[in-house]
Amino acid sequence: MPVSDRARLYWRRTRSMTLWLLLLWFTVTFSAIFFARQLSVYTFLGWPISFFMAAQGSILIFVGIIAFYGWRMQRLDDAYNNNDES
Amino acid sequence: MTKAKTFFQRLCRYYLLYTVGFVLFLFGVAILEHEGFPRVWIGYVFMFSTIVVYATIGVISRTSDVLEYYVAGRRVPAFFNGMATAADWISAASFISLAGGLYLWGFDGLAYIMGWTGGFVLVALLIAPYLRKFGQYTIPDYLAARYTGQYSTNVVRVIAVIATIIVSFTYVVAQIYGVGLITSRFTGVDFSVGIFLGLASILVCSFLGGMRAVTWTQVAQYIILIIAYMIPVVWLSMKHTNMPVPPIAYGSAIAQLTEREKVLIDDPKEKEVRAIFRQRAYDLDDRLASLPESWENGRAEIQHNLEALKLGNAALQDIKQTGRELAAYPRDADEAERVWKEERALNLELAKPPTRHTEPFPGDSEEASNIKRNNFLALVFCLMLGTAALPHVLVRYYTTPSVKEARHSVAWTLFFIMALYITIPALAVLVKYDIYSSLVGSNFSQLPEWVSYWANIDKLHPLVSINDVNRDGIVQLAEIVMDVDIVVLATPEIAGLPYVISGLIAAGGLAAALSTADGLLLTISNALSHDIYYKTVDPEASTQKRVTVSKLLLLMVALVAAYVASMKPGDILSLVGAAFSLAASALFPALALGVFWKRANQQGAIAGMLVGFSVCAYYMIHTLPAFGGSAAGQWFNIAPISAGVFGVPAGFCAIIMVSLLTRAPDQRTEDLLKHLRSP
User: Fold this and answer.
1) What is the DSSP letter of A2?
2) What's CA B535's distance to the chain center, in Å?
3) Cross-chain Cβ contact A56/B422 below 8 Å
4) Chain A environment of B251 (Cβ under 8 Å)
5) How many Cβ pairs within 8 Å bridge chains A and B?
């Protein structure tokens, strides 16, 4: 594959991953807030679910998103660089 | 590779030693306290010893190399950069006030927790890796290089510099104000003396070593602030739940708190106190209606009382009390109107039954509740996008050795911030449970010691006040008035820990304020020296001269900021939240579209930054009472702090429309983007 094509592929993959993760980020944030009143009826280990999500659940998911992104991007970088040498 | 590894191991060893040393120091002071060391001296010991530590790190890391001064030599490992960024990020407000905010606002306060953490997802996905790939020195650098074209690159640069300075300056004033508040509360020194003490330590650090010194100091500050926060909260958590991990443990405390709230909402004694407050508000209504006669009558009455007391040889205390009342009485009818209206609002607030802590968006009607929900969403939106556009946080990602490390570094940053941020809601619930169950219902003659201690620290704005409104000798919840800061300040004593832990809290608060102030001052002075002086005024300047100019500017900015803070500007403090909206509106669209939309060009970016900033600023001026606006000017009932909800879309629209209407960016931009978008 020519270099420019592979660069384009790399960028396309990066972009689609960014998009999916942003979508996840948005869904978590928005639904935890927008449906907070409906969710507050249910409890999770003592916490009403909406309170748990706003106080810690969403933050854990945010850390997860960033860690996953770092890990996947590193693999993508490695794949690209390996191809480069071969 | 191995070189980087040994560097990392050496850092780990140093900071481990440092942490052990700090814990030993803590034990040492605890023993001193046991031996009868006075309270004020413990405050002094913590203030001065930590400041000396930071200054020492600053002196050791002194440098006049450009790369070291601006970006710490680009060799800060992801783990440590994460820690430093966390300290950079955690401000005095997060450390001291946020727990109290959550105590008072319940669920609605969690907007800050969500907003201030979720923003890092945007930093990680949209900005940090590309900034590092670009690899220059400041945020305006990046924008200027990305948006080249018809005009001189300096146009974009200067607009970005102005936005950076406005945002960072309001923020740094608040941090220095926090430094003054913490030092004066814990050591009793004058507020302005406290400010200049803190300033001295900030300067020794950043003046000598720039980013290099600031980075290593921030790591040290993070360690202190997290230890300081955790010890009392873990203790309190053990006391109430027998579990040492507060974020896991407080689920059971929430259930108990909810039970207690139910009791207090319907308690007849509580209702009695609330009725008294309501009556007071009605009385004020009457007085407001009959101004200005009521003002004259009121003053005459106090004067009459005073004379009667004097003639009747009453106790000196009563005479003094009435004298103070007279002195505090409004000077004229206009002032009376203003003061009484405030008092009326306060009394009406106190007359309300307590809201339930976990209830989302409590409101009298569906509509009121929806307004609260929309404001929560809007605030989270602004805080997240603001976080992703705060220059002092973003520049930290220039300092990692590679793009890969920059990505990991954001994960570490949020991890270290999370350690504090998931503990804050736990602390609020634990303290609330403690107060609801043991302070409420106790006898006025047996108030815990911390109440009288913190009530007397600042006489003008008491941090906590408890008055026996219905004179039954028992504390009712409605009789307790608390400031947001008291929750963190009093936690060690509520948990039953010795005063040494309160001193530790002071050191932690100071670390939080100083670390943020360090980063902000450096960002402002670098924007001035690098972007304005070097890139715009004198591109021929030698590297030596650039660093010298930078240091001089740092000194000047620091002095101006300290001067502004020492005037206690209440208005500026209320604007700190607004800094997020301004940063989001002015910088976020240009930063995000820069990488992800090739067609965005210079004209678009200029328009976007100007329009975003203006819309946001206009909305604030239009709705903030401090600027002569009023709540009546609000759109969709959105509070002024969330002005970014309008500014950001306006900024995006402006960039997109103007870019599409003008010529596509040139080959230079194309090449830069190709570089940024490749691994």
Assistant:
1) -
2) 32
3) yes
4) 45-47
5) 132
DSSP secondary structure letters along A10-33? HHHHHHHHHHHHHHHHHHHHHHHH
Measured between alpha carbons, how far is residue B167 from residues B130, B217, B520, B563 in Å?
A: 22, 23, 10, 18
Most confident of the following: B426-435, B534-543, B616-625? B426-435
Helix, coil or strand: residue A43: strand
A3-32 as b/e: b if 16+ CB within 10 A: eeebbeebbeebeebbeebeebbeebbeeb
Q: Is B443 helix (H, G, I), strand (E, B) or coil?
A: strand
CA dist B149 to B159, B304, B527, B538, B675, Å? 15, 77, 22, 21, 18
Contact B411 A14 (CB under 8 A): no
pLDDT at B39: 81
Predicted pLDDT at B607:
94
In angstroms, rounded to a whole number, what is the distance separating the alpha carbons of residues A51 and B149? 49
pLDDT score of B574 more than 70: no
Subunit contact A70:B678, Cβ cutoff 8 A: no
Q: Are residues B415 and A63, on separate chains, in Cβ contact within 8 Å?
A: yes
Helices and strands counted in chain A (H then E): 4, 2
| Burial class (CB within 10 angstroms; exposed 0-12, middle 13-18, buried 19+) of B56 | middle
Count CB atoms within 10 A of the CB of residue B638: 21
pTM: 0.91
Angstroms from B350 CA to nearest CA on chain A: 25
